[in-house]
Design goal:
The complex is a heterotrimer of chains A (about 290), B (about 325) and C (about 325). Chain A is an all-alpha fold. Chain A has a domain of about 130 residues: MetI-like (MetI-like fold, Orthogonal Bundle). Chain A contains twelve helices and no strands. The two termini of chain A are about 40 Å apart. At the A-B interface, helix 5, helix 6, helix 10, helix 11 and helix 12 of A face helix 1, helix 6, helix 7, helix 12 and helix 13 of B.
Amino acid sequence: MENAKKLALHRKRKQFVEALFRSKMSLVGLAILVFFVLLAFVGPLLYDYDHQEYGAGEMLEPPSKAFLLGTDDLGRDVLGELIHGAKTSLIVGVLATLISMVIGTVVGISSGYFGGRIDAFLMRVTDAFLVLPWLPLMLVLAALLGSSLWNIVVVIGVTSWAGTARLARAQTLSVKERQFVERARSIGAGHVYIMRKKILPNVFPLIFSNTVLVSAVAILSETTLSFLGMGDVLRPSWGMMLHYAFEAGAVSVGAYWFFVPPGVCIILLVLGFAFLGHSFDEILNPALRRR
Amino acid sequence: MNSEYLLRKIFHSAITLFIVLIINYFLFRIMPGDPVSMIMRNPNANPSMLAQVKSLYGFDKPQLVQFAVYLRELVKGNFGMSFFYRQPVIDVIGSRLFATLVLAFAAEIVAIFLGILLGKIAAVRRGEPVDAAILGFSLVTYAMPTFWLGIVFIAFFCVHLGLFPTVGMYTSGVTFAGFADKAVDLAKHLFLPAVTLAVVIVGGYSMIMRSSLLDVLSEDYITTARAKGLSRRDVINRHAVPNARLPIITIIAINLGFMIAGALQVETVFSWPGIGRLMYEALKARDYPLLQGIFLIVSFCVILANFAADIMYGYLDPRIRY
Amino acid sequence: MKLLEVRNLKTYFDTREGVVRAVDDVSFSLEKGEAIGLVGESGCGKTTTALSVLQLLPKEGRIAGGEILLNGEDFAAKSEEELRKHRWRDVSIVFQGAMNALNPVMKVSRQIAEALLLHEELTEEEARRRVLALFDLVEISSSLVDCYPHEFSGGMRQRAMIAMALACGPKLIVGDEPTTALDVMVQAQILALLGKLRREFGMAMILITHDLSIVGANCDQVAVMYGGKVAEIGPVGKVLRNPCHPYTQRLLKAFPDIRGEREMVQSIPGFPPNLVTPPPGCRFSPRCDAAREICFSREPAMRCVEPGHEAACHFAEERS
């Protein structure tokens, strides 16, 4: 019995991976993400750059052999900054999403499982978070907590869970009435046990693809917060690069090399997440698949 | 109109507003820089002064009473004083509202018009290269930070080509001969920020329009319209589009948060003297009362817009009877 | 000259799974004022056959062969532009479940007037008067003229649909399950109305249904379709009294209840064939009790069992 279950699970996983590799969109998304992960974690080992070293070159020097993407307003190598900044975006994207997913799943499943007043209350709170203008909220929170990488992670995490909660609730409602849940309840299983063992596994696939999409939003949020001056000054990040580029007037002197590359990297990374999330959705939730 | 539906919507909006107020209240209490801590920072402050200030602001009362006072003051329109401007928050915000409304309205009009058009083209030519191009455009603009697009536009159109002024709403230091001159100057300044904002939201609209139109095109009444002998263009424009347009209305309201985020960035980049720019300035100056006031007003607008969208939807879709 | 003559019609759908031969070599004809019933389970090609006449197929569909002669003109060879003038003027359609066949955000009167204005030189005022006359004809109160479809009951929507179909005085009217989803009383009323108006105006009709009893009461001819082909065709009286194709026999035995299809599928074990890779030989063979060896290898030709009555079964004569 246990073995057959494992085998079925194994087969499911294999089918999933195969489907993933069949879809062009997911391959492109995967390739982009692998590229940026390598850039973020292997790149710094191979490419020598010191974030604290000012004046390695002239100020706002255009691209040359010495500096392939030119220099920034403090004479730092833009390419080096770009490579070292990748890590920040990835870390924020993944961690903030994790927080968002945990909050969203817990709220959504409890709401759907318990129903009644708890449901009504949690859904009103969720609605409030859906409706609240998220960027101002993030800015207010970030200003309150102070700008550090971890605070930004928390701020993005606690403001972006509402959509996930809605999804988790809907799925929980449809799972709740199925037989195996009733059976577990009839043999006296506890609420937490049922939610964790019976409902979560059925809700997770839906959440998972949504989560990947949330990462895309989280990365954009980090960039925007940093650009608006709420970023971590001590860490290089693409958002901070754009912040400095804007503040230092790189735009008005037309120093494209300073502000175009980080933007392009952000777009690619966000697209990577969006592609992958979309493919997950198509594979894991075939009921939703249309056109 | 069914009053039950209306009441329920009002009730939901009221609860959401209440939750926003609670969040706002507590943020305000724990923010650094409330009046008391401002005075504590003053080296000449002594305990009796502190107690005096505390009682003046009602900080010695229980939280619930304080919350009630806070609500009462809000209803009276008292959002506190801006540290930076040394003016009531409500006045500071009021003076910036017009600029934001102009920008948001212009961008929204462009985006809706373009979004419906692009979505229509994509749906009608499903699977053709045009469809793929529109999809690509929508995806890339979705993935693009708004402020970055603004920066690139400024660098290219203003600095490189010199086509548009870079900052502000009007050319500074100029007295306009008449209303027409002023409007032309405004239009010049408005064009690029509005286009930037429109570009980042248009992708979403076109995708919604596309999928909604594809859904509609498979409906029976489309076959009826074709069977009647209508041309393809008339089938799409008279029968499909009016049905497919409905979801856009909801999306506009849901998107309002997105729109506000975009306006905030666009205003910052283009020095547009609106609420968004004001928020950025308030953040830089750590002007917390102003920040709070903006946050509250913006939230209130979003809640109101969502409510309005529900009502509008019912008006446009005769199937929904309140 | 016959009003409508469909010869060897082939309508295919190009899908990701392959080419679906939804209609494969279908022929039938119709005299002026005559009614033919197309009967069969869902997905057997009834609706596709009817929609092919006006080329109202979805994007993936195409007429792959055959002729559709209406008054001697080959509609299958006409371009979309040419056909538009004939649509609704010559052939109109009453769709099933009229809720979705009427545009939900357009007033019913507007939808009828639209057809009138398109095909006839009328002013708005004249069109409105005609709409009111049509409402009268199908016995809908003129007070409902400015209502939206959802404000109508199911039966009234179907009446409005019929009013719309009559608007331009067509020679042929296609009823695509016009009474499905209506309760029995309304069903009978609608069919009676349709029959009365048809005789009054001398219109021919193609009635698509899965209910043989409706065909018996309303049609002159019947074509039983299975898997995109005609299984049996002939005058209603002959076919119903003397069914020669096992599928027709099964259909007659399977008393369809008012809710229709679901019951029927149960009463004939198995499902209609996959039309991308249809079974070799007779398409009904996998579900046929009387199938013999030849049925699985050779496709049966149409056999004449009595004058005007044909069946596509190797053993049709044995059964007659």
